Each structure stands twice: as structure tokens, then as C-alpha cells.
Amino acid sequence: MTVTLESLSDSRHTLARLCLLAVRAADKTWKGVDPRRVRDSWNRTNADFLTLFATLQTRAASDAMDSSTLMLAEQGDYVRPDGIANPLAFGTGFAPSGIDLESYFDIPVTRTLSAIKSGMGESDAMTAGRATLRQMAMQALEDTSISAMGVSITQRAGVGYVRVESPDCCPRCAILAGKYFRHNNDFLRHPKCHGRTIPCKGKEKAEKQGWITSPMDRFNNMSEEEQDKVFGHADAQAIRDGADIYQVVNAHRGMRPVGRGNIGMATSEGTSRYGWSRMIRKYEYGQRQRRRLTPEGIYSFNLPREQTIELLKREGYILPDKWREQVPELRRSQWLHDNGYRQGRHEELTAAQKRLLNARLRYEAALDGHNPYQPGKPVTPDVLAKAENSYRRWLSSNGEKYTE
Q1: How far apart are the C-alpha atoms of 302 and 257, rounded to whole Å?
Q2: Burial level of 10, CB count in 10 A (0-12/13-18/19+)?
Q3: Is the distance from CB of 60 to CB of 145 less than 8 angstroms?
Q4: Which of 154, 241, 251, 356 has a CA positioned 20 to 30 A from the CA of residue 350?
Q5: Which of 10, 328, 1 lies closest to 179 in space, CA to CA?
């Protein structure tokens, strides 16, 4: 997906400069750390670094908020926010994860000490500690920018965002590029992820701009060598053989080895109650799924092409015709209670409201004699107590994870 917004490019460059400043400050501070007294020397020398970093967070938040309005303006839109966001709130001495900066940046120190204790040389351990510090500094600034952008988007009615990835992104990010998300969908990131958001007034507007794309478009425009490099040979071959790119990439979330040596791999992804692989095995093959092979596991058997394709179908990588259209009804037939919002019929629910609604529905299901945690199992007093306590906890915080 090619995006030509000038404000997006400017925002990328600004964030890159801020990350560079953070890295230089981290390097300067780490030079003052004594490998013989790592924690004590770090605590004596990090005050200026922590103060500077909080300032960089404020600048990153301010730029993200400014760029969100500019990106909307470049699209010919302006949506008045509900209030004016305060970028200073992002530079109060806390990392985006919620812990204070002092504890956050103590992690490289702990890892350095653990490396030395495990037998690594002091020089190598200090180098690894510096690399961790640099990575954590950049990640925290990028997370701050994303969080601030999210606040600016949430403030504007009807505005969501399209996810944009860097050219060298990993497979997990590649399948999210060009996808439209509502304001209350979290922007999930991982270390070294450089994904960004483009605020957009509704999915239809994003489609007209040509920003909503399929990851298969990118895949098909790559050479086989590039496909193998990004996705791995087995996964890329599965996709070339007709497997669904989302099923292939997502399978890696629950991988584990099978048998001895390199016989193959299995995954738990897609095998839950509403998992596609489990439902395909049940409704298309009339079988109970015990484990799911990954594409790598399937290709390791070196079977004839016809049998390989059949295994890809059985394991839920090559989807049955019109499968996506069938999923809502199949899942609905397995519901223990009304969770219609999962199908998009309650579009205005925030993540906090969903947590609270989930807790209430679980409690009501338990009261009605349905075990919400282990379907088919009896409802014991422990289950009722767990459901009640969970509901009370989310009710007291109105579904919010963190409260003052």
C-alpha cells in the first residue's frame, strides 16, 4: 500500500529524530555504568536521562496529535474533537505500559546482571545491556506516539484508522497493513515494529482513498525469493498453493514441536471453541480435532501434491468456498449466551464496555447453569464465585483496566 500524505512522512521523520536523540542519550548514560557495580552506578547517573526521556515523550505525543489533524485535513476532512488533548500528560514519568520510567529502564540493568551471573563476559554483557536500553527507549517513544494518536482519533466521532507498515515488516504486521480499524480497536505492536496509523473518516473514505488493501496484493507483487525471505519457505509455499494468508501467519502464535527431531510442528491456534480450524474439521470433515499441523509440519512429510493440498484443507489453511460468510452462523449455533457484539451488531461498544459486558454475560450464564469457562462441565460453587467476583471487579472499574 502506497501512502503519499505529506503529514505522515513528516511525522515519521520527526519520530525518527526523537528516537535518535533518545538513543544518543541512552548511549551517553550507559557509558557511565560500572560493570562491577551496574545497578548502583546506573542509579547514580540516570537522572538526566530520565528527565530528557519524559520531555521526548511529550514531544512525540504533541507531534502525533498535530499530525492526526493534518492527515485528516489532507483528506479534505476536519472532525472537531471532544475537548483538547494534553500532550503533557504523556511526559509524566511513566512508560506507555503504565510503569514508572525508573522501573522501566531498570530492565536493561537486570538483564545485564543476569547475563554476567550466567557466565557471559562483562564486556559482552554490557554491550547487550546497552542494546536493550536503546531498543526499549525507541519502543517507548513509538508506543507513546501511537497512544497519543489513538487519543486524538478517539476524540473525533466517526474517525478510525488504517494501519500502515514499513517495507521490511514481519509477516504478522504484513497481514494487518491496509486494514481499517475503529477507534476502540487497540493498535497492537511488538518490539521493532514501526507500524503507523492514518486517521480516516470512516471505512468508505479509506476505501475511496485506496488505502484498504489485501495482504495478498503485496504477496503477489513479491518474487518467490522475497516471499520465502519474509514468510519462510514452507509458509510462502502454502500461500502459493492456495492457503489463506491469515491462517498461515496466525498459526505461528501457538506452535510447538511434534514428536522427535524435526518431524514437524503443530499449533494450538485455531483449535479453540470458535477457532476456524476446529470448526472446519468438525463441520466439513465430521472429525474431532486433536492437534493442528502447521504448513511446515505438513510439508515435512514430503507427500504428493494432491495429498499435501488435502492436508492444507483439512487443517484449515485452504478455506472451503464461502467459508467466511458461514462463520457467523456456525459460531452463533455454539453460543452459550448472547454475545452479538462480537459479530459487529453493537458497533459503539468500547473495549472497556466489552469487558464489562463479557463479565456480566459469564455471570448470568453461570447462574443459568452453563459453565462459561469450560462448556459442558458442571457449574460448581467455585465457578459461580469466580464469575461473580469477575463481574464485580469489572463493574467497580466500569470495565477499565487501570483506575486511579
Answers
A1: 18
A2: middle
A3: yes
A4: 251
A5: 1
The DSSP code for 101 is H
Give the pTM: 0.65
Q: What single-letter amino acid sits at 227?
A: Q
What is the C-alpha to C-alpha distance for residues 112 and 104, in angstroms, rounded to an integer?
A: 14
User: What span, in angstroms and rounded, lies between the C-alpha atoms of 214 and 208?
Assistant: 15
| Tens of each residue's pLDDT in the chain, 404 residues | 555 678 888 888 999 999 999 999 999 999 999 999 999 999 999 999 999 999 999 999 999 988 888 888 888 888 888 878 888 888 888 888 788 999 999 999 999 999 999 999 999 999 999 999 999 999 999 989 988 888 888 888 888 888 877 766 778 777 777 778 877 676 666 666 677 778 888 778 777 777 777 788 888 888 999 888 888 899 999 999 999 888 888 887 765 554 444 444 788 888 888 888 989 998 889 888 878 888 888 888 888 888 889 989 999 998 888 888 888 888 888 776 666 555 544 456 777 888 888 898 888 888 889 898 888 889 898 888 888 888 888 888 888 875 44
Grid cell for residue 248: 498461515
| Cα torsion 201, 203, 208, 211: sign | positive
